[in-house]
Specification:
Keywords: Membrane, Transmembrane, Transmembrane helix. It comes from Halobaculum litoreum. There is one protein chain. The chain contains 20 helices and 4 strands. The strands form 2 sheets. A two-stranded antiparallel sheet has the order 1-2. A two-stranded parallel sheet has the order 3-4. By secondary structure, it is mainly alpha-helical.
Length: 512
């Protein structure tokens, strides 16, 4: 059953106008993600992912290493690069596709949100400047945030309809989120804390019996759906096994060979989590401590949201407050507000640097109350003016331009005129004129049987260039073998280093 208002549902014949509107939003979102996708040269962080993806494509060897990001990015990029060639656009295409389809997740919340709010949610997910920019960026943050929203939406959809398929969808989406980025792990406690606050709202409002009743209903639901939950667990484990299983190297066929399956399962469910905990928790608790001071990290996170996601931030605050102080608060709106608020503190703690892309993870959650705020604002404007009133047209243009202006402010210093001192690009976005230099280098390398690239300097020519790729120690020689490059450092004897070649810019190799 729904706790939302479905009075706004409108249908014309067999055409569901809300679904059609969301479909139009998805089409526009895909256009915004794919248009001129290869125009911006690879950010150095993208270059690292592109470099390791090319090595994986060449050798067939890959295994999960937390410092290199989640495995889904490498597995998907290997296919897109293999199909469409080693170009910037091809490498980014999977992330762009998922980011463009993300507004469709708004339909999972239809029922808890009315039809106008559902379309507003899709619009915020499609046009939020931060989501648009990092959907055109080779990182797993948009993937993790998007699949995380699908998990929440699947739970809401199951609650509203009683259907079982959302449970299986949510289980698969959770595995995909965890395989996209380690930051997805932060979402798990965030969801629990937000759910606890939603449950406690009844006590705060002076009806503690309602909170106890909700808790009892949850226990009864778990018992009644034990079989479906068990199936969902197997879906999660199966998807996670496929994604986290090592490729090539010592495990051979891996999943498809009975002799290597036990080692693959052990890696996916034992060694991979141990590696993550060792890097993100144990390593940071052991001296010398790595990471940021808490307050500067939170301040940097907040500045990024204000500068690049202010439309969602403003509408989210309006929607949360409006919902909070009205009778019959909807749990999904409160959940989104609480989760986004605690995420403002949790993600800076989880991050090992003040990185703007970590702000992506709270935007979809903030869009839940943001949809309520945006729909309320649009309805208020419509109530005050007729469609033929110039004031109505001006108001609509002002609301629509909010996202455009925010995206323009986000992209101007990175796409139009990238500068080395850009904090938003983490001081690592090459200027657009790098393409000419790369084209000249590739022309010189064409048909050359000797060394392609020579790195000179202590920072570029190091053993770590191929000592720390996402492969097992026994397979590192395979990654370094056959690389036609050399390096010199302060007059030392040249030695092989791993470098990647592509038909476009793939950035410089960088260990992490």
């Amino acid at each position: 059953m729904s706790d939302g208002d479905r009075s706004g549902a409108t249908r014309s014949g067999r055409i569901d106008r809300t679904v059609a509107a969301v479909g139009v939003v998805v089409a526009l979102a895909l256009l915004a993600r794919f248009a001129f996708l290869g125009a911006r040269p690879f950010h150095w962080d993208e270059g690292r992912v592109g470099y390791w993806t090319l090595r994986y494509l060449d050798t067939g060897v890959y295994e999960y290493r937390p410092a290199a990001g989640g495995p889904l990015v490498y597995l998907a990029t290997r296919w897109t690069v293999g199909l469409f060639g080693a170009t910037d656009a091809a490498a980014r295409s999977f992330v762009a596709l998922v980011g463009g389809l993300l507004p469709a997740a708004a339909l999972l919340f239809r029922g808890s949100l009315d039809d106008g709010e559902t379309v507003a949610l899709a619009a915020l997910l499609a046009g939020s400047p931060l989501l648009v920019y990092y959907s055109r960026f080779l990182r797993g943050d948009v993937l993790a945030a998007g699949f995380g929203l699908v998990v929440v939406g699947a739970v809401v959809r199951h609650r509203d309809t009683g259907a079982r398929w959302p449970l299986y969808l949510g289980a698969a989406a959770l595995a995909l989120a965890l395989a996209s980025s380690g930051f997805a792990v932060v979402s798990l406690p965030l969801w629990l804390v937000a759910a606890a606050f939603v449950l406690d709202e009844a006590r705060v409002r002076g009806t503690p019996a309602a909170a106890v009743g909700r808790l009892g209903a949850g226990v009864a639901w778990a018992r009644a759906n034990a079989t479906s939950l068990s199936r969902a667990l197997f879906v999660f484990l199966g998807v996670a096994l496929v994604l986290f299983a090592p490729r090539g190297g010592g495990v051979g066929p891996g999943l498809w060979s009975p002799s290597t399956l036990p080692s693959v399962v052990a890696f996916a469910f034992v060694e991979a989590p141990e590696r993550f905990v060792s890097l993100r928790f144990a390593g940071r608790l052991s001296p010398p401590a790595r990471g940021n001071s808490f307050l500067p990290a939170v301040a940097g996170y907040a500045r990024t949201l204000v500068a690049t996601a202010w439309p969602v931030l403003v509408f989210g605050l309006v929607g949360f407050l409006r919902e909070r102080y009205r009778p019959g608060t909807r749990s999904v709106v409160a959940f989104g507000g609480y989760a986004a608020g605690f995420g403002l503190l949790a993600f800076p703690i989880a991050s090992m640097g003040v990185e703007p892309w970590t702000a992506v993870h709270v935007v979809p959650l903030l869009a839940l109350p943001g949809a309520v705020g945006l729909a309320w604002a649009v309805r208020g404007l419509r109530a005050r003016a007729t469609a033929t009133d110039p004031a109505w047209l001006v108001a609509v243009l002002l609301v629509a331009s909010a996202g455009v202006a925010g995206y323009g402010a986000t992209a101007a210093g990175v796409y139009a005129d990238p500068a080395p001192e850009s904090a938003f690009a983490q001081y690592a976005q090459p200027s657009g004129d790098v393409d000419a230099a790369l084209a000249a280098a590739e022309t010189a390398m064409a048909g050359n049987d000797g060394v392609d690239v020579v790195y000179v300097g202590r920072d570029l020519d190091t053993d770590r260039e191929y000592a720390l790729p996402p492969v097992a120690a026994a397979d590192r020689d395979a990654w370094g073998r056959g690389c036609r490059s050399s390096g010199t450092s302060n007059g030392s004897t040249p030695r092989p280093t791993a470098s990647a070649r592509s038909a476009n810019s793939t950035g410089r190799p960088r260990s992490s």
